[in-house]
Amino acid sequence: MRLVLKRLVNSIFLSIGIATLVFFLIRILPSVSFPDIYLNPRLSEEMIRKIESTYGLDKPLLIQFLNWLKGIITGNLGFSFIHRKPVINCIMESLSSTLTIGIPALVYSFGVGILIGVQSARNYGKLIDRITSSSLLVLYSIPSFWLGIILILLFSYTFRLLPPSGLHSFNFNEMNFFEKTFDLLHHIFLPALTLGTPPMAAIAKFTRNTMLKVLSQTYIKTAIAKGLDQKTIFYRHILPNALLPVITLFGLYLPVFFAGSIVIEEIFSIPGIGKSMVDSILQRDYPLTVGITLFVSFIVIVGNLISDVLYSIFDPRIRLK
Amino acid sequence: MKNQRKILGIAILIILYLSLADIIIPFDPIASPDKQNLSNLPPLSKAYELTIESGEKMFVLNYRIYNRFVYYDQKFSSGKIEIDKLKKVKTLLFVFGTDNLGRDVLSRTIYGGKFSLIIGIFSSLLAFIIGVFVGTISGYFGGIIDKILMRATDVFLAFPKLFLILVIIALTPSQTILSLVLVLSLLNWMSIARLIRAEFLRLKEAEFVLALESVGLPGLRIALKHILPNAIVPALINIPLMVGDIILTESILSFLGFGVQPPTPTWGNMISEAEKSLISTWWLPILPGLLISGTVLAMNWISDITFESKT
Amino acid sequence: MRFNHLPLFLLITLIIFASCTRKTEKNYIIIGSTIDIDSFNPYLSTSLFTQDLLDRVYLRLAVEHEDYKTFTPLLAKRWEWSKDSTQITFYLRNDVYWTDGVKTTAYDVEFSFKAATSPDVAWLNAEDIIRNIEFVKALDETTLIVKYRYVYPYQLTDINDVWIVPKHIYEKIPFSEWRRNGYFDEKPVTNGPYKVARWERGQIIELVKNENYFNKNYPKIQKIFVKIVPNESNLLLQFLNGEIDVLPSIPPAVAEKYENNPNFKFIKYPFLAYEYIGWNQKNKIFADKRVRQALSYGINVDEIIKVILKGNAVRATSPFPSIFWAHNEKLKPYPYDPEKAKKLLSEAGWKDRDGDGILDNVINGKKVNFKFTLITNAENLTRKEIATAIQNDLLKLGIKMEIQVFEFNTFMRHILNKNFDAVLSGWRVATKPDLATIFHSEAIKAGHNIVSYSNLYFDKLNDSAAVLNNLSEAKILWDKVQEIIYEDQPYTFLYEPIRISGISKRIDLKTVRMNSISFLYNLPEWELSK
């Protein structure tokens, strides 16, 4: 437990380190920092300096950095240039959109993935297994970017069944609970499907492999030889042992679902973390970029940590180092 | 043995594709013979190339011969010419349609695949080499060097990729395929490094290594000649997966203005441009997407069969 | 097995419940946009779309007409010039209230002028106003005097550019804090025909009818929703599916494809802008006038308009668009004439001496091939296609052109640092004619003369034309100025875009007016179809 805590603290420092790197590197980018400057050729030097000073950009870089560091300790990530709001609020808003897609996608990919994997393994060698295995391979190979485009073409363009974008309708606030739920499901179906399908295929494949491994183990064979009830064997012995390793994937996929996908948020017009990141970089909103970097890198590192921890729990041979 | 033949088959297929891509394309992938009349034709469209007496060529969508005249229809106009003046008629078939500039999608996809595959394969090989290098050093030396390298790997893993790309654009004066390969390999070596390191740590304790050490072989020699070859094998499986990943990442780069510049097509930039004109020309992304999926599928299949033959 | 049906059952229940929707009021329209607004504080807005929208919630002194010369009263009932024409007295309406109940007075205008000219606010358009207007003073609640430093033709335009904001709200925050403060966006206080009901960043803006608007006849439509969908294909799809009623700009290829669809209409109108290729004269190749002319002859702009823009553009000939009064209509676009281009090039010394298919020349004792790179921004698909077409055209002349695209900020940096050979870009044109910012030799060092064009005769003419008070005399000078530019071709002027806006059949087309000022020009007058 101490080790986990230590690594958690480490990962906080590591993500601050990464954010620091971004903090300095972002100044290398060619930038016109504020749209005012290219829109208005006659903006005087004095005015540009005035604008910069309101954002604290006139101070030496090191001072700016120290201020930022001081802010982090007090939980203040700075102030976004484009949104005129604290960075932390911007991140929270984007995060809620990302999670609206991410959580259903997570449930879908693990739920359906495990289900298919288990079924496939139970029918090992049969035609159904071969069909699912090869279709999983195909699903796994389709780029999500393209999958999203094709799904939009099919469901929104050709059949006009599902909306291609956004998270809810314009009159969402006036709806009752059922309408709201339906509206939400209606909107998140395509993006969640696109986001969740490649991980789903990977999880199914992994589940199938671990299942097969467990099935070939001697204690299962013993159990079968002892003549235990089929169901008991399956639910008491095979399933838990096969699913434990699958759970470790959770950490690995954490960033996929919670850190926002640039591509999916782009094609489905979802104002999530990934989109926010791209916008902040393209518009050179330094504090927001650094803030999101801090958040995303933390999630990635913690995700790795979680999968390591889970792995060591389930496989005592491997110790956390 | 059978698996090796399958892998060899795919390798030959790729090499054949790369060398034949320029020859088998039916149309010029960069410039259309007639922008006006061949623009935005849907899949399976036909057009006719009429060669007139003066050697001039004319592209028409339809024509019929009636009363010593050839009547033709073009996109914006129609007209007629005397039948004696018509020298030759060639039928053109655009199986996957044409784009806004009248270029054949099939030709562009075949031609662009060359760049996508080269970028994908070379970047993943380079990423593999970087990964093996870092992983080996980390695993062999251990201790503080290992710690530093692993933290660096973590940093690269968690670093926002898009941002890194922009920084690199800012730092490189001109962008070539080479710089693209460099960037893409820099973004993808981390998992290989981790894998190699883990294998190294495992193999260090393996019996045969201990035996070699007891014989008194120098450590470096053991590492390079005995551990490394064994450690590389499981990491090799990752190369095919990476090729597919990189071909896709290239499409994201193109919207940042990085990478292969227009009018040269790649599967990636064809899809990302097609996405913008999806409503007027829905057929543009179909073929490049299918080919990316096919390539990745083939690669995954290779990694699958190598994996299964190992276990 | 029973378990498997549970989700399905839930879903069906849900659908049944959801389909029993209450009838919501249908008196609304939805406008689609790819970008969100910057802020409800007009002094912080930079995008055109923000200004379009803010103009429906804030009142100006007067309404500018499409000719950019005449005005009709709005907040000001009437105005009169002093004898020497350096002062205008405005008489404001007495019945305009801010949405929090406070009356809109001349003191608000006075305060707004202070804000507009304050260096702490650093407003985008402050420059002209600071230079031309001496002071603005409220005599009482409804009388306002504006004192100008000198007499010039655009006195009304300038004062009308000043956004009028509520003094009692905006003075709570010091000017220097404006850019960092989200206060203005929390509950915007406005006085226009619509008021702000909701703003969910990046998703939706809801405007509702201002019940206290002084003109009780307007607005006709109760609610305006602005739906923000960053992905353009996505937005178009929603428009085609009838989920969005108004779309400010539609790609020409889409408009061509759906031209005859009865569910929506496309409105086409000119836009005060033009696209050009700038030839950087710091590059020795482009320093020669004949080369630039040859390039203009060698690019088939008509084909570009026909193929890429599906005919939705007008050939540009000068930096003043053809709908603008100062435009010189005698200038005819450079025709596509490769033979003439070749002739001009060989006159300038460009010939294919080594037979490699690429022209070459000797500049400063060194052999130079005619090779250069054209840059443009990566986000703009149309520009990328145009660049490709130009590449084809120039190759036929023996000129090798590479294309390099950049992400917007990087692109702007390259332009402003003059770090390019040729650039494909566009300008929006100010409503006051002045070419100093882009072609004056003084604008090479600080300004937007990105191609480093320098012609002293041009400088002199432009400067005298810009301050001429008599517009018909000024027109004569502007015509001459444009002739110089036409001859020198610092840019190859490509085209003036025609904007295509789409509206659904839900809106009564007869009531809608869109023009180069705004696609929402008369939004309060729009009505739904019966």
The helix count of chain C comes to 17
Specify the biggest β-sheet of chain C. Answer: 8 strands, mixed
Structural class of chain B: mainly alpha
Which class do the helix and strand fractions of chain C yield?
Answer: alpha+beta
Tell me, rounded to a whole number, the average pLDDT of chain B: 84
Helix amount of chain B: 55-70%
- Regions with little confidence, pLDDT below 50 for 5+ residues of chain B: none
Largest sheet of chain B: 3 strands, antiparallel
Count of strand segments of chain C: 20
Features:
heterotrimer, B: about 300 residues, mainly alpha, MetI-like fold, SH3 type barrels, 2 domains, 3-stranded antiparallel β-sheet, 6 strands, elongated, C: about 525 residues, alpha+beta, 8-stranded mixed β-sheet, 20 strands
3D architecture notes:
The complex is a heterotrimer of chains A (321), B (311) and C (530). Helices cover 75% and strands 0% of the residues of chain A. Chain A has 321 residues and is mainly α. Chain A has helices spanning 2-25, 35-39, 45-54, 61-73, 87-122, 127-141, 144-158, 177-215, 218-226, 230-258, 262-267, 273-282, 286-314. The model of chain A has no long low-confidence stretch (mean pLDDT 83). The radius of gyration of chain A is 24 Å and the shape is globular. Chain B has helices spanning 2-24, 35-38, 105-141, 143-158, 161-171, 177-186, 190-204, 207-215, 219-236, 238-254, 267-276, 286-310, and strands spanning 45-52, 57-60, 62-66, 69-73, 78-82, 86-94. Chain B has 2 domains: 2-23 and 103-310, MetI-like (MetI-like fold, Orthogonal Bundle); 45-94, SH3 type barrels. In chain B, a hairpin with a 4-residue loop joins strand 1 and strand 2 (57-60). Chain B is mainly alpha-helical and 311 residues long. In chain B, helix 3 crosses helix 6 and helix 11 (267-276) packs across helix 12 (286-310). By secondary structure, chain C is of the alpha+beta class. Chain C has 17 helices and 20 strands. In chain C, strands 11, 12, 13, 14, 17, 18, 19 and 20 form an 8-stranded mixed sheet that branches. In chain C, strand 17 (371-377), helix 13 and strand 18 (400-406) form a beta-alpha-beta unit. In chain C, helix 10 runs antiparallel to helix 12 (338-347) and helix 16 packs antiparallel against helix 17. The longest helix of chain C has 18 residues, at 2-19. The model of chain C has no long low-confidence stretch (mean pLDDT 89). The chains are: A mainly alpha (321), B mainly alpha (311), C alpha+beta (530). Chains in contact: A-B, A-C, B-C. At the A-C interface, helix 2, helix 3, helix 7 and helix 8 of A face helix 1, helix 8 and helix 14 of C.
